[in-house]
Amino acid sequence: MTEANTLARGEIEQITGLTTNNLDAYWMPFTANRQFKKDPRLLVKAKDMHYTSADGRQILDGTAGLWCCNAGHGRQKIVEAVQQQVAELDYAPAFQMAHPKSFELAARLAALMPDPLNHVFYTNSGSESVETALKMALAYHKARGEGSRTRLIGRERGYHGVNFGGISVGGMVANRKQFGAMLAGVDHMRHTHGIAGNEFSKGVPKNGIEYAEDLMRLIQLHDPSTIAAVIVEPVAGSAGVILPPEGYLKRLREICDEHGILLIFDEVITGFGRLGTPFGVDYFDVIPDLVTTAKGLTSGVVPMGAVFASSKVYDAFMTGPDHLIELFHGYTYSAHPLACAAALATLDVYAEEELLTRGAKMAEYWQEALHSLRDCPHVIDIRNIGLIGAVELEPIAGEPTKRAFTAFLKAYEKNILIRTTGDTIAMSPPLIISESEIDTLVGTLRDVLKSLD
Ligand code: PLP
């Protein structure tokens, strides 16, 4: 028993200082605030594969926080790097000034990516990485005298963060419909979820390469000279783990090449080892022109994102007089010293423990464990790749999302953290997970599924 495990439920208020009176001020993101505040789920500590809840339970982290804590929690090397950095250089302006670690980190990141994706632009989140990549794509065409290319193409059910560019190219209906006007000149390809014959596929599904021809349809509709870029998640995570059919991403690359369109991979989830390769770029052997990342870059410890740009894109900007700014874009906290220190230490941990490829070693065990849930009640599909897994449940008639959300609540009561989106349960544990922890996660989920109405 840890010290926290000896605490009783009634002692939460004493430990956290929270009372039911002071929960009101915090407007929580992507959360049912009123429901949450009736019975708050508070996490107070984290170490390796576990959170400690305020009521003293050890919660197995089946989601790496929000798909980000890839090295696990409380990693000493990262903690010390951040502590040392804050004492040494707390902040340096990112515009017209820099600090050495920002260059060191960019060089190490560029070395992780295949050529020619060898330039790195820093942001503070996945959403900002997406906005940055979209703006780079538009400005790239303008810089080359093709300013008519202003149209952006995303995908239904795509998730590209929450800023206006991201929700415009994104295709998750709930994330768009509250907000009225979107960015003009955006169109969407169909998603690849639910293609007949792909149910319970292990890894990348066989059917559906023809869905890439949707891009051809939109090119013919709009004329290629109007299209700047196509953005896709190699594996769509937030929409419920939607995998690309075999050959689909390669075909998108071919079509983009034929028509002078930039291809953007949104690797905010798939980056940094999630698929068992450093990036989705490596897994699918497809090289886009821009790659957006965040999350695993610092293992979630300090907010940070990065956009990788190919030399073709970067070089298009590096023209004109030397003293002029090439891209009118950036954030006060781009290349923040604490984030750079956290990212450098995170890359050390990934390298020392070979975590960026560990997912490949664990993938088969993970896959077989997940697919053993196939006969549980209400399960209509199971999907997996690397250390990502999804269990899709049949929705309750007239009450979509309720069954999966009930599973999430029951799972938390049974000391495992999972996520749900719609009626899909999604899991993405830290890359340090052991076989016995996979057994615990999946075994507990089995009990949860069996208990659902
Ligand atoms: N893009 C993808 C593919 C994501 O999965 C996410 C977050 O889950 C984002 C962008 C947005 O990242 P953030 O929440 O850091 O802004």
TrEMBL record:
Its cofactor is pyridoxal 5'-phosphate. It comes from the Bacteria. Keywords: Aminotransferase, Pyridoxal phosphate, Pyruvate, Transferase. GO terms for biological process: biotin biosynthetic process. CDD domains: OAT_like. One of its GO terms (molecular function) is adenosylmethionine-8-amino-7-oxononanoate transaminase activity. PANTHER family: ADENOSYLMETHIONINE-8-AMINO-7-OXONONANOATE AMINOTRANSFERASE (PTHR42684), BETA-ALANINE--PYRUVATE AMINOTRANSFERASE (PTHR42684:SF1). Belongs to the class-III pyridoxal-phosphate-dependent aminotransferase family. This is Beta-alanine--pyruvate transaminase.
